[in-house]
Write a structure and sequence with these properties.
Blueprint (H helix, E strand, L loop, with lengths): L9 H7 L16 H27 L1 H13 L3 H15 L2 H4 L4 H11 L9 H8 L11 H11 L8
Helix pairs in contact: 3-4, 3-8, 4-8, 6-7
Amino acid sequence: MSEDLSGLGLVELYDRLVMPDAPVAVSLLPQTAGWVWLGLGLLVALAVVGRVATLRHRARAYRRAALVALERAGDDPAAIADILRRTALAGFPRRDVAGLSGDAWLGFLDASAPAAGFSGTEAGRVLASAPYRDQPPHSDLPGMAAAWVRTHRRQGGRG
């Protein structure tokens, strides 16, 4: 660059500039296989979590239906007894539930959800006899039944 540029104006100097070449495009693909495997692993994990969530939601559908039915039943002991029986049949093996009545039925309800506490209470007595004869409404029964529906667990810990 031995030529004299001192006599040139700014516009002439700008016109003499040589534009550099455009840079090479940066690839958006990962440079190592580890990132690909990590991405695939995350996709698989997300699919598994979604599947488990869907199965849990479907498995608890009978609980949601029972809670809606309890709301409709109000404080009618016979309707509450029927709803609890149907809910137990949906959540437990038929052989464990179908033949129970009286104290055995209340014991089953307590064993599967200890917080409900039907045995030894007036509400439990009303519940046990409601399918067989008219019973006056008991103020604690709807709340105890809803608590059982929400919290009952199978003996194996699932459910």
